[in-house]
Records
---
Amino acid sequence: MTMPENLFACWHPVAYAHMLLDKPLSVKLLDRLLVIWRGRDRVPHAMDDLCIHRGTALSLGEVKGDEIMCPYHGWRYDATGACTLIPQSRFDSIPTKARVNSFPCVERYGLVWVTLTEPLHPLPEIPELESPEWKVVNTGPFSWQSDASRQLENFTDFGHFPWVHPGLLGDLNRPEVPDHTVTIEGHVLHYTIVRPEAANSADFPVFANEAVEQPMRRSRYEVHLPYTIVLRLGWGKTKGMVYFFVSQPVAANRCIGFCIIGRNYDFDQPDDVLQNFENVIFNQDKRIVESQRPEQVPFDLAAELHLKFDAVAMAYRRAMTANRFSD
Ligand code: FES
Ligand SMILES: [Fe+2]
């Protein structure tokens, strides 16, 4: 299956930064196997996971200083992908063909990001995640057998809360989705939902509900195409929560979701409360989304049935098509 070229021109996450230590790591992005690794300055690098000599996976090798060494015959490559040492003929010059493709790679928001060609857009700005007044918890990663578009769309879908997450995010007595308007600015969708909060569950007291009767929760969404969401939750006072969700498009029917949560309250709560909460939520979603066919969101609006409360899904499909992130 071919992929729209614009998908290659985006920053995509490939790992939590804390997962990339001294050993090289094999990752897959848009059906391409990559190796990521850090040199002495700890800056991450990305290149094809394929030694030019005999096609061995470089991710099985080792980092040596600022170079990565193939495990088969010990050839070494620098961060630009150029071969720097061929031990079997070390007194001869190295052929210029002896190199692997390297790709732009950065670390930000606790994630390692890679783009396969010059990116169309910078990463979104999320000052909360870089502020000492906010505490950040990494949840997941959530590996699903679906296209990243389905995982993204599920995160934006309110209509399923009472059915898939009763008692945690929704309430079967209130299945209606409040009216909301989606505005599209280039590759970013904006919309806000205000609704009464579902009660904090005793198992997962993660939201900033006061003990008052049904506080209103304001959810301000930004969807950055193709697969990123910035969601800011507020309850009318100073307490705030930000969800940064981004899906790694591994292949046409595989994705990995990273969900980073910032809060300016409850600094003492152990991280695993939020992590366990998101494990429950994402597992409730996973079996539903993995059952959806086709595995990728059909971007043709005629392909599924959309009602008024599906405004976000419709806007997402339109904008993905307009920005040529879909065929
Ligand atoms: S296959 Fe990598 S050095 Fe020979
Ligand atoms: Fe869900």
Note: DSSP finds four helices and 18 strands in the chain.
---
Amino acid sequence: MEGRYSLIHHVRSLLDDEEGTLYKEAPFRVALCYPSPYHVGMSSLGFQAIYREIHQHPGATAERVFLPDDVEAFKKTRTPLFTWESQASVSSFAMLAFSVAYELELTGLFTMLELAGMPVLAEERREGGHPLVVAGGPLTFSNPDPLEPFVDVLVQGEAEDLIHVLVDAAATMEREALLDHLARIPGFRVPGRGGQRYHVARATDSRLPARTQIITSHTELRSMFLIEPERGCSRGCHYCVMRRTTNGGMRTVPPERVLSLIPAHARRVGLVGAAVTDHPRIVELLRTLVDAGKEVGVSSLRADRLTQELVDQLRRGGATNLTVAADGASQRMRDMVDRKHSEEQIVRAAGFARTAGMKQLKVYNVVGLPFEGDEDIDELIRFTTELSRILPVALGVAPFVAKRNTPLDGAPFAGIKEVENRLERLRKGLRGRAEVRPTSARWAWVEYMLAQCGPEGGLAAMDAWRAGGSFSAWKKAFEARGCEPYLARRVADERRNPVHWPTVPKMAPPATAA
Ligand code: SF4
């Protein structure tokens, strides 16, 4: 019992440090679940926005739940998973609504259902009078298929409007009628009953901007008030889920409205969005915030949009390093994926950062794009060396993972060995000149399989989770479930049913360097 008390005590101490927590009694209770720990979930603007939306609904309330930091402590003390606000058992709620950011969070969802005392598979819950299980979040912008075996309903895309539709219906309808009803509404998908696949809903503009409801120091973005001055992106990078075709391009919010929503007590402000520096009045917004004495961070800096003034404002707002994404080892690769910026623009950005007095340039890049070769990696080594003469460079490198709902959908994974070789070439070539921070090729492959597979990929994830979650458990599980990436399935299925699949633009190989 003492162990259980200490778990509750820990949550209460985190609650004491929060500002903006909402408490409300209402007939329809939603457990709003994040399948990663508190310090990650509380940095999710989407999660916070839906929390506020549910509280604004006249007949509903929401309490938050996170993947525990110490799952074993819950198991050892037989403590059922409980909510943050009232520490009530999650299974006593009418609905569990999960926000899933990316593929590997699937196992967090399994653990949370297990700790809540609920079967992981939706078909095993149906007869038991369990709460409705719903999932939405950024993963639904690309491929939510692996979630299908575990949820009753998928909410696809921007959920600020759909959550009201869902709560209205769920509060008044019997389960069977509810599922049939939702399967007919665009944006919802009900496994086994229908709903448009890969439909990304778009929230009405009046619900923007998304913004923090609760500020806490116990998050990745410590005590920062997040707000979204723009949503979406007008560009068309071929690998990106947030490209213009996903949700209709960029929608901006006037700075006056953004400023009016930032509470006076917020000392740190994060401007977040897919393409914040594309906002036509970004410099003015930054300047006003910094002049008001705020620390300011910006989530997405595009090298081709940076000016000395913009970078100076970031420095005045407390930034000590400048982060840009290059997303292509060479110009040939960047051109191929329609990533519209050049070496010159990145070099210029490094110069702005040095002039502003920043200490480091962080550059994000990707390896393993289709048609990439050693010569592209060598160009990245040469170019990063050049940048490091301007400012110390930290190079973040992620293996390329093709996502559904993008023109590069179906592109193969370069191969674990191949990616590791390229990372090794990069590390060797930049030794003593730049810090290389790669992400794991193995886990990128697991992500790729989940990004490209259907519901069977989700079942494989469940098997791997049950088998302990090691890389070899994942590999075995994908094999045992006969998982094949999208392209292989598509080719086989197209032969049988040529009209079934949407047309995906073909990628042309890049021009070879002269
Ligand atoms: S990578 Fe960035 S700039 Fe390109 S489409 Fe995506 S959000 Fe826009």
Note: The two ends are 72 Å apart (CA to CA).
